Amino acid sequence: MSLSALAIDSLTAGYGEHRVLDSISMEIGSGEFVVLIGPNGCGKSTLLKTAAALLKPVAGRVSLFGHDVQKLKPSERSAMLGVVPQKVESPMAYTVGQIVMNGRTGSGLPWRALSEKDYVIIERAMIYTDVLHLRDRYFMELSGGEQQRVILAMVLAQEPKMIMLDESISHLDINHRYEVLRILKRINHERGMTVVLVSHDLSLSSEIADRLILMDAGRVVAEGNPRDVLRADILSRVYDCELQVKHDPLTGTVNVTGVLDGFRKTSEHKLTVHVIAGGGTGIELYRRLGLHGYRVTTGVLNRMDSDAEAANALGVEAVLDKPFSAISGTAFQSALELALEADIVVVSAVPFGAGNLINLRIGEQALDAGKDVWIAEGVAERDYTEDRQADALVRQLVAKGARMWPSLHMLIKELKG
Ligand SMILES: Nc1ncnc2c1ncn2[C@@H]1O[C@H](COP(=O)(O)OP(=O)(O)OP(=O)(O)O)[C@@H](O)[C@H]1O
User: For the segment 66-85, what is each residue's pLDDT rounded down to a tens digit?
Assistant: First the structure.
């Protein structure tokens, strides 16, 4: 890698108390074409915002072409970096032509008269992105895809050394999507412009990226050439779902798809899963099991618990008990009945304290009755009873044949078996 276009060193950043990036480091070489991927909310846009100095780091450093972004003047920064954001907002009164012109004059920069050369550059950017015919239209009246092309034209007119696009091709039809990619590839090859594209299209990413960077929860979890990053084991863990990854030996591209047919299979079976949860640990289970076609029951939950609200909202049959008190015998019996009627019992990673330890006994009795019982990995470590009774009970259940589930997608995969 030659001079680095973007160097991120132990960067921690977020919004107020909410830390999104967690001591993340990465380097993007000058002239590279990198695609940044990762689940919703993992921090990709936040990373772009810190690179554009729109967000100040809590700790760590971000450099553009060797310069600390926080110390660059706006004009210096815009010569180095152009950002095509995910969402575009503009005052109603701007026409497309005026917006693209901003790329040359620099929004927020001191006004300057445009030269003949500037106009040539503006026109070229508009032709490249197929927006010349929209020049006199009001920006806010355009479709989402047209707006994205206009903003791209504006950033191209800026002629930065690096361009970052935040899901900016997601609204484009297939023709314009490939056109924009061709433009980016061409400028990358011919002018050595560094390109960083954020995308959720994993297959397309494998076609265009020199290098992929996969983020999860504010960190880089894998990077390298697309074949090494787009692996079923890595992606299934990060996206927590079942995925199929196929390699095309002819083109060298990787095709990543989700799995839908499992849904049909399970919805035909209509298996019932009884979930033992609490403290919000059940919500994802109810949601995902329901989406995969299972009928879900749950309990015992206390009435104030967020799981109880979620169960109610999702139509999950639930046994509820009084808040802030130990589970009553009647509630225990009702939940046990549901568990014994179910095909499978799943225990979430609820911390089993003195008040709800008895919930684990439902799992135990279901196991004794020959049910499949699955316990979240780490549930024992979350126990906060002093004598670690939950820990001991989980070990007993595992010795008797209960199985551990490491992640929701692994659980669902196993259940579908
Ligand atoms: N302006 C903001 N104020 C508070 N929280 C924010 C703000 N912008 C983003 N967040 C939060 O920061 C986290 C990371 O958001 P970010 O937009 O960086 O994710 P992302 O990886 O780009 O996601 P996506 O793929 O959905 O676009 C999310 O939890 C989000 O809710």
Answer: 999 999 998 899 899 999 98
Kindly report the backbone phi and psi dihedral angles of residue 363, in degrees, each rounded to the nearest multiple of 5, phi listed first.
-60, -40
Q: Tell me the per-residue pLDDT of 116-156, one tens digit each, with 9 for 90 and over.
A: 888 999 999 999 888 999 999 999 888 888 888 899 999 99
Mutate-to-test residue for ligand 1 from 35, 40, 199, 219, highest number of ligand atoms within 8 A of CB: 40
User: Is residue 213 classed as helix, strand or coil in its secondary structure?
Assistant: strand
Structure tokens at 27: 């380097």
How close is the Cα of 364 to the center of ligand 1, in Å? 41
Minimum CA distance residue for ligand 1 atom 9: 46
Q: Is the CB of 104 under 6 A from ligand 1?
A: no
Higher pLDDT, 162 or 118: 162
8 A C-beta contact, residue 238 and residue 64: no
Determine the topology of domain 270-414 in CATH. Answer: Rossmann fold (3.40.50)
> What tens digit of pLDDT does each residue of 291-335 get?
888 999 999 999 889 999 999 999 899 999 988 788 899 999 999
Residue nearest atom 28 of ligand 1, based on CA coordinates: 41
Token pair, residue 379, equals 């549930």
CA of 191 to the centre of ligand 1 (A): 32
Cα 148 to averaged position of ligand 1 atoms, centre (Å) = 20
| Closest C-alpha residue for ligand 1 atom 7 | 15
Reported ipTM? 0.98
Angle separating helix axes 144-158 and 116-128, nearest 10 degrees: 140
Cα–Cα distance for residue pair 381/395, rounded to 1 Å? 11
Please give the distance, rounded to the nearest whole angstrom, from the Cα atom of residue 407 to the centre of ligand 1: 23
How many A from CA of 222 to the centre of ligand 1?
A: 20
State the pTM of this model.
Answer: 0.78
* Fold adopted by 2-256: Rossmann fold (3.40.50)
Q: Any idea where the domains of the chain sit in the sequence?
A: 2-256, 270-414
Do the domains at 2-256 and 270-414 have one common CATH topology? yes
Q: Are 281 and 348 in contact (CB under 8 A)?
A: yes
